[in-house]
Each structure stands twice: as structure tokens, then as C-alpha cells.
Amino acid sequence: MNSSQKKQVDCKNFAELSFSKSQISVQWRSEVTSCLFWSIIYNEFLLNLSIFTILILFTFSLVVNIYLLLGLEHSEALSWNPRYVLLKNLIVSDLLLTVMISLPALHCLLWHETLIFNFRCIAQYFTIAVATLGSLLTITSMALESFVYTCHGIHYLGIMTNMRLYCFMILIWLLALAGAGSSTTLVLMGRANFGRILAGFVCEPEDVQAQLEASNYFETFNKIFIGSVLFLFLLVFSFSYGRMYQIARQVQQPFQQENAHARCTIFFYFAIFLLQLFPSIINLITMFGRDVDNHIYMIMLSLVPPCVNPVAYGIRNRCTLYYYFNASDSDSDIVDHAPFQVHLGFYFHASDSDSDIVGHASFQTCHGHLLSALLQSIHSSHPHLF
């Protein structure tokens, strides 16, 4: 019996109380602390704090992501842009992840009930795995798109065609479904003991593994697959932003000043990417040492990226904000009155003279109002190029 299965046995007696509605006996008080679930349920402060935190993260993620998604869908200037197509895909993945994690956790906390291992639990495990992989694959794809735009801008239109973009989106979901499906298949092949009570709030790999009589294949696959995927994502992201960082160092401001703004922007998005990977990294670490109860903390940690992503990649973006507050303006008005960004990141106003150009080569996620309007005009006039 591994440590994960032992923990399930220790919590089983306490879990049964949630269905009988009886009070925990005095002689069990000292043992409740060994089961994190019931140590939270019978601690009013921790219970209220957990409910409040998850509810805040759930509400914020739901409102911000839906607001941004609806705005992108109704914006003709942004909806066709490759970067924002990827952003919409990220929002869908984050919404799916938020709903599948928050609702079961809130149900367990509010009703003082643990989960039962059944096909519903397996479906939840599969959906969370698909959403997590979809988010990671999409953010990695956004890093590649930024790399192509920044380092190969002259070929950007030829590379980021609509057909290639949509095929890439389909590939993202196929890879996510394949990874989650393989793991779920191993669960069904591992002689699962259905009907048992789980000690966690969500059907996580650790809880699912504890219900398998033959868990070696499932455990080995998860370790190898998650480790390989994380390594690949780090490699791709490091390469993409590493090249952009090198270009940012080469492009200098007037008076031979270093381009600190561009480097700070690159480091900012790299930190956001690491935040996205952090829950998966913690899960991978706990697979090699499962002696610590971490269910509620992992739930809160997993809900942070869906809250940060729409702010970092969407609302923080100057293009997105400008199009949101100028939805009634035409593209010509946007070009005439808005500050815009050309390739290599030199900001200026349409009415400014050459001497007034502020050349700080910042690699913002915004493609620039002028370039965005120009690409949309080309897209409307010559759709066969996309």
C-alpha cells in the first residue's frame, strides 16, 4: 500500500460522517488533523477562508474571461488577428478549467461532503487534464507567434495564414485530448475500485491513483508525460523569448541607452508563463513524494493562472483597451487619432514629427493600431493571402 492509498484509508472513516450527518467523536479529534479535508471542514476559520478564496477566484476568473471573450468576438478589428484568436482559445481553456475545479470544490466545502470515485469523477479528471494541457499549449503557441512577429516580421503574413492558424488550433486540442485520453484509459485499465470515498475536493491524479489496484502504469505514464511536456514547453518558451531578448539588447534607444523597457516586458511574460506552469510543476513534484496533503492549496493555486491570463494577455494590452473604448470608431479614425506601434516597437503619434519620435523598442503584445488596421485592410481586399 503506497502513501496515497494509506491516506485514503485514514480519511475514509471521517468521510463517511458527511453522509450520516453525525458528529465526530471525541476520541477521533486528534486523528482528524492527519486528514486535511476534515481538518478544514471542522475548523470554521479555515472552512470560511477556503470558501471565500475559491469563490473570489472563481467569480473573478469567470467575469473577466467572459467579458474579454465577448469583447473579442464583437471586435472586427481584433477577432481575425492571429494573436487574439489564440487568446480566445486560451480563454476557453481557462473557463473550462475554472468551472471544473471550482464547482466540485465549493460543493464539497459548502455541503461537507467528499467525492465518490465513479465515472463522473473520471470525466472530471479527463476534462481538467484537457483544459490544463490546452492552456499550456496555447500559451506556448502565443510565445511562438510573438517570436515570429518580432524576429521574422517581414514574413509574418505568409506564415500566420488563417488556414495554418486554424489547423494549429485543431492540433492543440487533439494533443490535449490525446494526452488526457491516454491517462484516462490507463485509469480504466488499472482495475479501479468504483464507489470508494475520496479524501480530496477534486479528482486529482493522486486521488485517482489511490483507487487503482494496478497503478504502476498510470503513475509511470503521468510522471514521464507531465515531465516531458513541461520540459518541452520550457524549451520552446525559453527559445522564443530568449531570441526576442537578444534582439531587444541589440536595438538601442537614442543616445545609446539600453532598451530596458523591452527586456522588462519580456521578463514579465516569462514570469506569467512560469506562473502558468507552477501548478503542474508542483503536481509533478508531489508524484515523487506524496506524504503531504495539499488538495485545497493546489485548488487555489490552479485557479490563479485563469485569473491572471486575461489581465496579462488581454486587458493589460494597449490595443485591446483602445479597441474596447473606441468600438464605434472606424479603422481610419483609429489610425489618425491613436498612438500606434510599428515593427521593432517605435511609438509615435501620427501628428508627430520625426524629431518627436520616442524610440523605445518595447515588445508589447499589441501589434499596433496602424499595423492592425493595415493587416485588416489587406485581409479584406485580398483574403486569398491569408
UniProtKB/TrEMBL annotation:
All residue ranges annotated as the G-protein coupled receptors family 1 profile domain in the record: 64-313
InterPro entries (UniProt xref): GPCR1_Superfamily_Member (IPR052921), GPCR_Rhodpsn (IPR000276), GPCR_Rhodpsn_7TM (IPR017452)
Keywords: Membrane, Transmembrane, Transmembrane helix
GO MF entries: G protein-coupled receptor activity; odorant binding; olfactory receptor activity
Membrane-crossing segments per the record: 45-70, 91-112, 124-144, 165-189, 224-245, 266-289, 295-315
A Pfam family this chain is assigned to: 7tm_1
One GO term describing the cellular component: membrane
Localization, UniProt: Membrane
Gene3D superfamilies: Rhodopsin 7-helix transmembrane proteins
Name this polypeptide is given: G-protein coupled receptors family 1 profile domain-containing protein
